[in-house]
Amino acid sequence: MNREIKRLNMKAEKYAEKLEKVMEEVSKVIVGQQEVMERLIIALIADGHVLLEGVPGLAKTLMIKTLADTLNAAFRRIQFTPDLLPADIMGTKIYNHRDMKFTTQKGPIFANFILADEINRAPPKTQAAMLEAMQERQVTIQGDTFALPKPFFVMATQNPIESSGTYPLPEAQVDRFMFKTLIGYPSKEEEKVIIDRMTEGVEIEVKKVMDIKELVEIQNFVQKIYADEKIKEYVASIVDASRKPGEYGIEVDGYIEYGASPRASIWLILAAKAHALLNARGYVLPEDIKAIARDVLRHRIILTYEAEAEDVSVDSIIDKILERVKTP
Q1: What percent of the residues of the chain are helix, what percent strand, and what percent coil, each to the nearest 5?
Q2: Judging by DSSP bridges, how do beta strands 91-96 and 113-117 pair with one another?
Q3: Rounded CA separation 52/233 (Å)
Q4: Taking a C-beta distance cutoff of 8 angstroms, is the pair 74, 125 a contact?
Q5: Quick one: 179 exposed, middle or buried, by C-beta within 10 A (0-12, 13-18, 19+)?
Q6: In 3-state terms, what secondary structure has residue 15?
Q7: What residue spans define the domains of the chain?
Q8: pLDDT tens for each residue of the chain, 328 residues long
C-alpha cells in the first residue's frame, strides 16, 4: 500500500503543479476570490457542477470565461429569462426546403464550459431541461440523442437578494449541483486593484496552460486517489448526523427538516479527493473533508421554519455537525 500511495503522490504532485499554473493565470484577471476559484477547480476536476450565489457585479462571468480560456475550452453563456424555452438551450430541428429534410440545430449547451446566468429566472420546464442535461450528460432533440462534450462543466448563478420574477430551484434539482458556493464582496484593497485593472484600458491575456485532453486525464485520476475506510466511515457519519442529529449529541432544537441525501456522501468523497490533489497528495485526510463540507452540504440540509424565524444559518449547523462527529 505504501508503494501505491507513493505512486499516487508523484502523479498528484505533477497534476497539482499544472492546476497551480491555471490558478496563477486566472489570478492575472480576477482579483481575490481565491477560495471561490479553488472551489470551481475542485468541482471541475471532480466532474461536478457549481451553483454560485452572490450579488451582481462580482465577476462571476469573467471568472468562468477566464478559466475556460486557460484550458482552451469552448465557453457559452446562457442568460436565463422568464421566456426562455428548453429548445433555446438544447437546440431544435429545422426544416430545410432545399433538400426537404429536417436538420438538427444544436443549442448553446454543446460546449465544455456553460455559465447558466440567473438560473432561477427561467420557468421550471427550462430549469428541468438544463438540470437533466447536467445529470445525464446528453440531450435529446426531437427523438435524437446527442452526447454532450467532455469535459462538461456548468456554473449556475443566482442572486440571493432579488426574488421578484424568479422560480426557486426545487430541492431535488439543487441536489444535482456538487457545490453551492457563496461569493462575497472584495476587500477595500482588492477593490482598488480592480479599479486599476478595469479603468486603464489594459487588456490582460491569459496563457493556455492545459488542454482538454489533460483535464480529462486529471478527472480520471481524481477517482483513483486513495480514501481509507476510516475516511468513508467519517463521511457516512457526517451525513447520518445531518439526518439524526440527536444520536450524535448535536443540539439543533428541531431546526433540520430534512438531512443530506446520499449524493452528499458521494460528493464529499470526490470533492475531498480533488482537494487532496490540489494539495499535491494522492490520499485523503479528514482536513480535506472539513475544507469542502460546507459547499457540499449547505444546499442539501433543509431547515425548518423555526430555524429561519430564529435566523439560524445552515452553515452554523454544518459547523456543529463537524464539531460533534469524531474525526478519525
Answers
A1: 50, 15, 35
A2: unpaired
A3: 29
A4: no
A5: buried
A6: helix
A7: 29-211, 225-324
A8: 688 888 989 999 999 999 999 998 888 888 778 888 999 999 999 999 999 988 777 778 888 888 998 988 899 999 998 899 988 999 888 888 788 788 888 889 999 999 999 888 888 888 888 888 888 898 888 878 889 999 999 999 887 776 666 677 877 778 889 999 988 888 888 888 878 777 776 677 788 888 899 999 999 999 999 999 999 999 999 999 999 988 888 888 788 888 998 999 999 999 999 999 999 999 999 999 999 999 999 999 988 888 888 888 899 999 999 999 999 8
Architecture in CATH for domain 29-211 = 3-Layer(aba) Sandwich (3.40)
Q: What angle do CA 26, 106, 100 make, to 5 degrees?
A: 160
Dmax over Cα atoms in the chain, in whole Å? Answer: 72
Instruction: Dump the DSSP string for 101-163.
Output: EEEEEE-TT-SSEEEEETGGGS-HHHHHHHHHHHHHSEEEETTEEEEPPSS-EEEEEE-SS--
Pairing type for strands 302-303 and 256-258 reads antiparallel
Please state, in angstroms and rounded to a whole number, the distance separating the CA atoms of residues 64 and 43: 12
Q: Is the dihedral of CA 270, 263, 286, 307 positive or negative?
A: positive
Cα of 125 vs its chain's centroid, Å? 22
How much is the pTM? 0.90
**Phi-psi label, residue 253: left if phi above 0, alpha if psi -120 to 50, beta otherwise:** left
* Radius of gyration of the CA atoms of the chain, in A: 21
Distance between alpha carbon 275 and the CA centroid of its chain, in Å? 13
Degrees to nearest 5, angle at CA 68 with 62 and 73:
145
CATH of domain 225-324: 1.10.8.80
